[in-house]
Amino acid sequence: MREIFQQDLEQVGDDLVAMARLVREALEGATSALLSPDLELAERVIDGDRAIDRLQEDLEQQCITLLARQQPVATDLRVVVTGLRLSATIERMGDLARHVAEVARGRFPEQAIPEVARPTFEELTSSARAVATDVVDLLEGHDVSLAARVLEDDDRLDALHRDTFRLVLAPSAADHSLTPQEIVDITLLGRYLERFGDHGVAVARRILFLVTGDAVAHTAPAR
């Protein structure tokens, strides 16, 4: 019985890694579609979000079943509860990747990102991709030293997010070189990518809790 329980716990971990890999793929596709632009790629990302949702639903059911049937305690309970929370967080990261792809699709064949904002968004997308890779690595290896890297990537995203506000409030926006739609897109896309980083931080903190057992104070990111 114990062996089956351990196999079930390992399956939870494997499914979390699979989810994170799908999210990384979605984020890479969405940001490529945004900067290209690429309609077909954007639509693949949007359609692919259903697979992430299904995995999250399966994981949630797995964790609830383990809690109900096995009544785990101590470390095992921490694994199950952390898995339940991680699945929800990673699913939200997938939603944010889908939102980016939806903006890219909505503006096709035009560029969603105007030239004045392109350097900022090239850095934003690069930093968000780094977070997506960090999350996969964290879930695969539970290397707590990677948590610091996630925080650094998120700090970079936060700084770049502030740059997007400077773009839309700059004289170039006021004198109509940026259209109202471009201002909305810059604002929303900056928010989506910044939130993606916030959720990456939430994953890092939960892995720290899983490995060390120490709760890490944080503010839960919004969807």
How would you describe what is shown here?
It is a single chain. This protein has 223 residues and is mainly alpha-helical. The chain has a single domain (2-212), classed as Methane Monooxygenase Hydroxylase, Chain G, domain 1 (Up-down Bundle). It has 7 helices and no strands. It has helices at residues 2-35, 39-70, 74-107, 118-141, 145-169, 171-174, 180-212. Helix 1 packs antiparallel against helix 4 (118-141). The longest helix has 34 residues, at 2-35. It is elongated, with a radius of gyration of 19 Å. The model has no long low-confidence stretch (mean pLDDT 89).
Architecture blueprint of SSEs:
Layout: H1 2-35, H2 39-70, H3 74-107, H4 118-141, H5 145-169, H6 171-174, H7 180-212
Helix pairs in contact: 1-2, 1-3, 1-4, 2-3, 3-7, 4-5, 4-7, 5-7
